[in-house]
Protein: Triphosphoribosyl-dephospho-CoA synthase
Organism: Desulfosporosinus lacus DSM 15449
Amino acid sequence: MDHNLNWGLAGAAQTACVLEADAPKLGNVNRFHDFEDCSLEDFHLSAIAIGPAFGGLAKKGVGRTIYEAVKATREVTVTNTNLGILLLLAPLGLAWHRRGDKSVEAWRCEAGQVLAVLAMEDADYAYKAIRLAEPGGLGEVGEYDVRTEGRPPFTLLEAMKAAAERDLVAGEYANSFELVFAQGYPMLRQSLAAGLALPQAIAQTHLYLLSLVPDTLIVRKLGQEAGHEVQERAALAWQLGGWSTREGRNAIEVFDQWLRRDGHRLNPGSTADLTAAAIFVWLLQKQ
């Protein structure tokens, strides 16, 4: 084992990925459902693979960590299992390492500082990672298009701000992780305090986030109308109590079947990425 790596940080990243994948989240791969082209084991292997990259985060920085984690993931699965998660966890992890005190407020403040000083090198590494991961649903985006070869003439934060309207992960860069820190993490804690077991608390957090904003993976693939319909159905299940009540669980079962009726085109994967980031915050705040 390399004792120069931060294995506490690496372990939190790995654990967040496993917990997010296993939880019975709506429309996603989970402990009860695989996709035709992707299984739960793909997510587990991916979680293991990212450990060394995240262990060296403090030395390597955000962009290089993202790229090395994606590269390691591609060695164990041909499916994009974690790009959005890695884009979120890398700056969050570096901010946690550098924060002035152990409060969530200090962590979020430091996260803003980490994002503000991201360089063109970080954008270059991140763009290479995105091309390597080959995520679905990317459109043409002019000067910030990830398909453009060569070193980008802009910072990673600039690129993310340009994409914030159409991508939840990019939006978190633009607003200093508003959904993660102010919505997802508190909801996970609240769900656990209310007595839900961890898998259901994670699924409850995912449902709550899905009820707040349209999932941008769905929007990119199927359009705004589909994204809003999924959001509205999530809001209805949430209003019935979600995983906390019998009525809510019944609504979730029907909603989940509806999401899965056509393969995984309605996979709310961007919301799952935010959920993984909320788990990551929860895990590190317990250390």
Observations:
- The chain has one domain: 7-285.
- The radius of gyration is 18 Å.
- Residues 7-285 form a domain with the Triphosphoribosyl-dephospho-CoA protein fold (CATH 1.10.4200.10).
- The first helix runs from residue 7 to 22.
